[in-house]
Specification:
about 400 residues; mainly alpha; Amino acid/polyamine transporter I
């Protein structure tokens, strides 16, 4: 009876399953469409031209397979990923938590760099000094909860404006649609590094679990909610995919027009060449805001895996949660300050999390057929086998990437 009096339960009861699913969808989409997403898409469009369309196509297909597998198994089991991993094999959840935490650290280094790059566009300060400012602001935002809410809403508004500007760029530029379509389905060159990077940057690391865990927190559990799980996963992927395709077409139009993207900030170049100084400055605001919210989201989600990785009762995490998150942000900022090269870092972090994906997805697929975890639920065969294909392909592509970089 006492449960009915808690604010959390009252909130959950007021929300419909579809509302919870849409909240998870946009959480995942916003996590995916961060500074790394923007920089990776612009970088590879500049390097590969229309051939990058094939990598985007593979990314969208893989996104669907990964998110549908992860969200379904988490919701049906009613357990977060690290807990169900421990059900498969004692200690496996701790290993998964370690991978997600390390991957989240890589993501956060890139997020700090992205926010610093945004300040560089706006005020001309170095990305490294901008990263320090961003790190300090992120800590303040974490402490002052209302500030975080305001920033979330601001970024959502900016995302809408960003899509509008991308559509404007596509309308005023000569977009080679036929060339993009042909090379998307019949590429003349396949870049495994690009595939690993953008898949890792979209559903790698903590991002693949953010939506599923959000569903659990909203009270969506059990196989009777599969319908809403499917709607949420597909909506989140659609939002992220539309933005990536628009950015690709805008970038391709700029490249075909003869402009060379600035290697230090390729995404900003697209806005600058197509929309002038206004577009350039606006992109700086967008990149900074996206970086700030990604810093908060990555830090919070990555460290939340320690709730199950350190002690069954989670007392360690609950006691030191704030210190862990602040420490996570500080470490990310220090590493970026000494590493520098924000654009290169933002591309690298996607690749690094691409290595984590096959391991995390393999754990989910094993759980999908574990009766102790999913009970009588029958996981769709097409999802199961396509999931293992993604695991094998990403493992192979990751190995190929390492060989190319050596």
């Amino acid at each position: 009876m006492n449960d009915k009096k808690t604010p959390e339960n009252l909130t959950t009861k007021k929300r419909s399953p579809r509302s919870i699913a849409m909240g998870a969808a946009f959480l995942m989409a916003m996590a995916a469409v961060g500074p790394g997403f923007l920089t990776q898409t612009a970088t590879f469009t500049g390097e590969m031209g229309a051939n990058f369309g094939f990598a985007i196509l593979i990314c969208i297909i893989f996104d669907i397979i990964v998110q549908m597998n992860v969200w379904r198994v988490i919701v049906v089991s009613g357990q977060k990923a690290q807990k169900l991993a421990n059900e498969i094999l004692p200690g496996l959840g701790y290993f998964l938590s370690f991978l997600v935490a390390v991957g989240g650290l890589f993501f956060n280094i890139g997020n700090v760099g992205g926010a610093g790059l945004g300040l560089n566009v706006l005020f001309g300060i170095s990305p490294e000094n901008g990263a320090i400012i961003a790190g300090l602001l992120a800590i303040i935002i974490f402490v002052v909860k209302n500030a975080m809410t305001v920033m979330d809403r601001t970024v959502q508004l900016l995302a809408v404006v960003k899509v509008a500007i991308l559509i404007y760029i596509i309308c005023i530029m000569a977009v080679p649609y036929q060339q993009a379509a042909v090379h998307t389905f019949m590429p003349t060159k396949i870049n495994f590094y690009a595939i690993v990077t953008i898949v890792g940057g979209t559903v790698g690391g903590y991002i693949s679990f953010s939506g599923g865990h959000r569903l659990l927190e909203g009270g969506l559990k059990g196989k009777e909610n599969i319908k809403y799980v499917n709607e949420g996963a597909l909506t989140g992927i659609a939002v992220a995919s539309v933005i990536r395709v628009l950015l690709f077409l805008a970038g391709l139009a700029v490249v075909v027009a003869g402009f060379k993207l600035d290697a230090s900030n390729p995404a900003a170049s697209i806005f600058k060449y197509a929309a002038g100084n206004f577009g350039y400055k606006f992109f700086g605001i967008l990149l900074f805001a996206a970086g700030m919210t990604s810093i908060i989201g990555s830090s919070f989600t990555s460290t939340s895996f320690l709730d199950y990785a350190v002690g069954k009762n989670g007392n360690f995490y609950q006691k030191y949660r704030r210190s862990l998150i602040v420490g996570f942000i500080i470490i990310s900022t220090i590493i970026f300050y000494f590493v520098g090269s924000p654009a290169k870092v933002l591309v690298f972090v996607g690749a690094a999390n691409g290595f984590v994906l096959p391991i995390a997805l393999a754990i989910i697929l094993l759980a999908s057929h574990h009766k102790k975890i999913v009970g009588s639920y029958q996981h769709p065969k097409w999802l199961f086998y396509s999931g293992w294909f993604v695991v094998l392909f990403m493992a192979y592509a990751s190995i190929q990437t390492v060989m190319e970089l050596l």
